[in-house]
Write a structure and sequence with these properties.
By secondary structure, chain A is an all-alpha fold. Chain A folds into 2 domains: 38 residues, no CATH class; 147 residues, no CATH class. Helices cover 63% and strands 2% of the residues of chain A. Chain A has a two-stranded antiparallel sheet with strand order 1-2. The C terminus of chain B is likely disordered. The chains are: A mainly alpha, B mainly alpha.
Chain lengths: 207, 191
């Protein structure tokens, strides 16, 4: 009987040496060594596969095709909040009473500005329908997603919704603000894209 | 299970991964049971295979799949110990002389491996982990120290006392087996 038994890789072996490491061996006649060599591996008493299968939310191949990772999603949410807060602050603060501002106000009548810059509606029926459809897909597939993934997705969606809400509030005070309009459009685009990614993830989990 | 099953599983084939699971689950479950005890073995085994599924894309075939899976399993189990914040607390103080392990009732079953399995499960958790890693799985003290975040000296002393306790237990169970022949420590004439 050898002190170190080589386990093959087939039939459930692990290819690693089994038995005491060479830096602190047991004697050949040590009964403890004989007992170690007699240890047997048996399968668990109940099948563990169903529990494993239910947690295999993502296929490795499919997972690699996604462009968002959880840290990236988290960072995107943080960035969205920061940008939203910054833009809102810029938009809501009182305009500086500088000579340049006064000159610009005279040179660019308010009516002209409002006529040229359309408030970013993006709130058309097609957009709302797309968001509703994706939210439905995500809701139906949320059980197939890892709870941590769901948590991050929901946190990011909440952050984007907050950015949209702040943009709208700021636009109510300054409807012609091009920064706010583009920010609102960008936030809504981000929401649509995040929902698309989430729906893809949940679809992959169901495969 | 074939090597192809690992390749198929790495490409997202769940059926192939199920075959991989069936081929390797006795080994992984045995490791989890010895390291963490029977009450945690099922859940840890599931954790290992879920992690393996998620990480299969990183398996490059530089070692055998069994070796890769085994190392991953050890990492998952040790990580669990760390998560629970019990890794260091599981080890007995070095000055403690005797492991408090009551001998099991004598059994007639002539199964040396099963006797040892039962005895291992009655070891204090820290000593059990080190004994399994070193004497069953073949990890060196330095590797164990790195994995568990303890010193190599702690690994050696815990192993020494785990061996003593196991011999006591085995001898109590089997009075006829090897009494007086066991050796441990460099001063006791190991080969």
């Amino acid at each position: 009987m050898t002190q170190i038994a080589q386990i093959g890789d087939g039939g459930g072996g692990n290819g690693r040496r089994r038995g005491p490491a060479e830096d602190d061996p047991l004697g050949h006649d040590d009964p403890l060594l004989q007992a170690i060599e007699a240890l047997a591996d048996a399968p668990p008493e109940r099948s563990l596969w169903p529990g494993i299968e239910s947690r295999m939310a993502r296929r490795p191949g499919a997972a690699r095709s996604f462009t968002f990772t959880l840290p990236q999603l988290a960072m995107a949410a943080t960035l969205t909040i920061a940008v939203s807060a910054g833009v809102s602050w810029l938009a809501m603060r009182p305009a500086p009473a500088t000579p340049e501002a006064a000159i610009r106000a005279v040179a660019e009548p308010t009516d002209a500005v409002q006529g040229d810059v359309q408030r970013a509606t993006f709130a058309d029926a097609a957009y709302d329908a797309a968001v509703a459809d994706l939210e439905q897909v995500l809701q139906e597939g949320r059980d197939t997603l890892d709870p941590q993934t769901v948590m991050v997705l929901e946190r990011n969606l909440a952050a984007i919704d907050e950015a949209i809400r702040q943009s709208r509030a700021a636009l109510d005070a300054d409807p012609a603000n091009t920064y706010l309009n583009s920010h609102l459009a960008d936030a809504r685009r981000r929401k649509l894209e995040l929902l698309r990614q989430a729906a893809l993830l949940s679809n992959a989990g169901e495969m | 299970m074939t090597v192809d099953d690992v390749v198929l599983a790495a490409n997202g084939d769940a059926a192939a991964f199920e075959r991989v699971y069936h081929a390797h689950v006795p080994r992984v479950h045995g490791l989890a049971r010895r390291m963490a005890g029977p009450e945690a073995a099922d859940e840890l085994t599931q954790d290992v295979f879920v992690r393996a599924w998620q990480k299969l894309g990183t398996f490059r075939g530089e070692s055998s799949f069994g070796t890769w899976l085994h190392r991953l399993a050890v990492n998952v189990i040790v990580e669990r110990f760390r998560t629970l914040g019990v890794a260091r607390d599981r080890f007995l103080p070095d000055g403690e002389a005797v492991l408090d392990i009551a001998p099991a009732a004598p059994r007639s079953r002539p199964d040396l491996g099963m006797d040892l399995q039962v005895a291992i499960e009655r070891l204090p958790p820290g000593a059990r982990t080190i004994f399994v890693l070193h004497d069953v799985e073949g990890y060196r003290h330095e590797e164990i120290a790195t994995m568990l975040g303890v010193s190599a000296g702690t690994s050696k002393s815990q192993l020494h006392r785990a061996r003593q306790a196991l011999r006591q237990t085995l001898n109590a169970d089997r009075p006829q087996m090897g009494r007086g022949r066991a050796t441990d420590g460099p001063q006791m004439g190991r080969r």
